[in-house]
Amino acid sequence: MKHHAGDAPPAHSPAFPAVAQYRTLFEATPIPLWEEDLSEVKLFIDELWQEGVTDFQAHFDARPQDVLHCLELTKVVDVNHATLVLYKAANKKELIEHFPKILKEEAFNLYKEALILIAQGRTAFQAEGVNYTLAGDRLEVLIRWSVPDASAESWSQVIVSVEDITPQKQAEEVLRLQATALESAANAIVIAKRNGTIVWVNPAFSELTGYSFEETVGQTPSILKSGLNDSSLYADLWQTVLAGKVWHCDELINRRKDGSIYFEQMTITPVLNRNGRVIQFIAIKEDISERKQIEKQLRRQLQEEELLRQIVSINPSADQLKAALDLICTKLAEFYAVPVVSVVQVDKEAMLIDILGYYQNPETEASLTSLANILPIEQLVQQSTTTFIANVQQSAKLASVRELLQAFDNYATLMIPFQSSDAVNGLVMLDTNHPVVFQEDDIQFIDQVALHLGQIIQRVQAEQALQKQRDFARQIMLNMGQGLFLLESDGQISFCNPAFAELLGYEQGALIGRFIKQFGQFEPHKRVQEVDLTREDGSLIRVLVTAVPQQQFANTGIICVVTDLSAQKKIENTLAQARDQALKATRLKSEFLANMSHEIRTPLNAVIGMTSLVLDTPLTAEQQDYIETIRSSSEVLLTLINDILDFSKIEAGKMELEQRPFYLRNCVEEAIGIVSNKASEKGLALSYAIKSEVQNHIVGDIGRLRQVLVNLLSNAIKFTDKGGVILTVGPGPQWAKDGLAGGLTLQFSVKDTGIGISSEQLERLFKSFSQVDASATRKHGGTGLGLAISKQLVEMMGGHIWLESDFGYGSTFHFTIATEAAGTGFEQKLAAQARQRQTAILAAQPTAVLPTVDATQGQTHPLRILVAEDNRVNQKVALSILARLGYQADIANNGQEAVDALAERPYDVILMDVQMPQMDGVAATHHIRQQLPPAQQPTIIAMTAHALAGDREKYLQAGMDNYISKPVRIQELQQALLLVTVRNTV
């Protein structure tokens, strides 16, 4: 914009009246005025008309550059003095030259509106806008434009007046801000007349009280009265405000529209007229309910913290526990204003309760008590969570004791559990005779107290248990037979028991405080040592001292246990004598059994051998029956001897089981074959069944398994008069497999239809020398060893044996064994061992499957035989059996004769008795093995009545090649001779 005061007016504009009086008036007008020349602006607008512009609003909105162009065409011609003052200009020239500073960018929109009015033909208008002083101060102004009639056509003279409305605008803004502040104030504001009638409230008042603006106006503040304030408060209020003074109250209790109570802080300011008379009151109300609640909670919290501090500071000893818990119950009862508080301990394992702490307000009736005295123990034991029951009389949880509750005044209860040990928990119980509500904060606080109570009880009970242990340990130390003393780090005795004092010959108190070095050379750092201690009489006593560092139990020092070695030596000697006597008894027993076996087998050898030979001669039917009876009785006697020897082996722990492959079906069939004659004689059905899933080729001791089966089958046949016996084999039960790493389990069952066994008789089974029927009138004989041996053998085979019986209807014996399937590699290994121990094969071969007697064996397998035997009868038996096989033999009456005979002529085989005069069979074997070269060594077969555990191995280790026990069976001897290699030509 260009503003030039000295420019000549346009030619078409009439000259400004050069009237001095008018100019003076212009200059002296107190309202800021300036004169503008808008002729060029008018020409520009006319051009726009000619160009067809009619909507100048839209034109100038779309082309703001035209507005800027018009601003530049405007010329300020003159300004008055008031204008200079308003805009802070020093002179007219400064103001006109810097006129853009006055307008700035805020003038654009205002000037645009002026141009639109000019285009519309208006010659006068006003508008509010913003100007600036040359100093940069902002001015709110009211601008009025007017064009004299003489210049209406050319717009060469325009008078502009400016009114500074900045103070007015500021006042309006203040009022607007005040109104906004009142409306949006957080505090409630009430304006009331002198008589108290409310004329205005802000929204905060409605929010605080619940009364809307419409409901409030016309009412008095009394609608908020709660009745909880003192009447003197209102008297003071009116007296103060009517005196024109400000009244303030820090805490006023009022009631909302919904009836709820709230707290407020209120200040009432009176409004005075010009005469100083009160015409209105302005009350500002601040809601302090939340603050009051916080203050209340804070006070409560401080009170709880103080109470907790007092409770935590209670640290009772064991004898003070009851009083301490009673005190804590008292504090809780007073704090929460409840009449009964109790601390209950519940033992879950023993199902017992114990009220450790209790308080009851002395003013309450005796009909009020702790609910722990009413509830069943089962319900208290199950109480694991915090429980509040508002009315115990009507609670469904307590329906089982409702009738009992009616006798008491209990109303509400709070039960908070706590833990005091693994098996024991506790309850803090608050009981009332009136309605009560416990807040969450209350429950949390009591839970903290309960936790502390659990720690107190646990600590005290641990101390009690520790004290009991200490008392127990002290009693042990005082009453133990061994000496004991406590040694301090400096070697001083701080305690000793009566046994130690008696050991040294002192009074117990006389040793306390003395140093151990005064009694002997004791090394404190050595754990176990033998030392000589000096007694009071000067004698020495040898003791064993075991020292344990005391820091494991206390702080320093050593615990020493003293053992009188003289007494121990006596004990050791006594034990040694007892051991020697036991070994001697065992040796004597073994010798007795060996001698008994030898003495019985020697005549049996003759009886069985001769009867076998007689049976091969022509006999009448009656003779045949007699001889078979003799032989059968001999076999029974031999079985009895074998059972006794087996039992002796097992009892001595010398029986060993073989582990070699065999076919299970063969073993079962052999056992069936052995007892089949007995079953047939009684007309019993005898059968067996092996389940298809059972492995047939297994590893184990076929002989001992067969022995168990024969025992059980024989028993079943013995006690069965009609029906039958069946043996079944199947997989073992699952319980038999438990703990078995791999392998197989088999179950054998022998079922009979015999007499059965009563429940009273079952306990006699499987016991040594015990029979189900031991009476003098018993029908069935036996030693009672069969089942005992079977039980031992089954257990050695990794199994179990048991019985199921129905008295009068039969029995079933079951047993299991642990085994494994036989493999090729295992078979090869055992086959190699078998070749080295031919006697094992022979011993394991049952009589039922031995070959028949071959009378021509002497011709087909000729041998030179020497019989070394001192008993004349056995000599005769041996020669007779050998003759039955086609052999002739020489006799040697003892071992020395056998050695001499071998020196005179060679022999292929020597049947060597063991027990002989002058030189026994073992000594003779040693001599032969040492004197003769290998090519001349005969086969030596031990043929003896010694048949105890280990005899076979002992004789084989002595250099013998084979072993046959007496009585000699002709088939066994026949087989043994077939194994002999002919070394000398007969």
Please count the helical segments: 33
Which spans have pLDDT < 50 for at least 5 consecutive residues?
Answer: 1-19, 768-783, 830-850
Net shape: elongated
The count of β-strands is 32
On the 0 to 100 scale, the average pLDDT is 81
Describe the secondary-structure layout.
Layout: H1 20-28, E1 33-37, H2 39-50, H3 56-62, H4 64-73, E2 75-79, H5 81-87, H6 92-97, H7 99-103, H8 107-119, E3 124-132, E4 138-146, E5 158-164, H9 166-184, E6 188-193, E7 198-201, H10 203-209, H11 213-216, H12 231-242, E8 247-255, E9 261-272, E10 278-287, H13 289-312, H14 321-336, E11 340-347, E12 352-360, H15 377-381, E13 387-389, H16 402-405, E14 412-419, E15 424-432, H17 440-479, E16 483-487, E17 493-496, H18 498-504, H19 508-511, E18 528-534, E19 540-549, E20 558-564, H20 565-615, H21 621-652, E21 660-663, H22 664-681, E22 685-690, E23 697-700, H23 702-718, E24 724-731, H24 734-737, E25 744-752, H25 785-796, E26 801-806, E27 810-821, H26 824-836, H27 838-844, H28 857-860, E28 865-868, H29 872-884, E29 889-892, H30 895-904, E30 909-912, H31 921-931, E31 939-944, H32 951-957, E32 962-965, H33 970-978
Parallel strand pairs: 22-24, 28-29, 28-30, 30-31, 31-32
Antiparallel strand pairs: 1-2, 1-5, 3-4, 4-5, 6-7, 6-10, 8-9, 9-10, 11-12, 11-15, 13-14, 14-15, 16-17, 16-20, 18-19, 19-20, 21-23, 23-27, 24-25, 25-27, 26-27
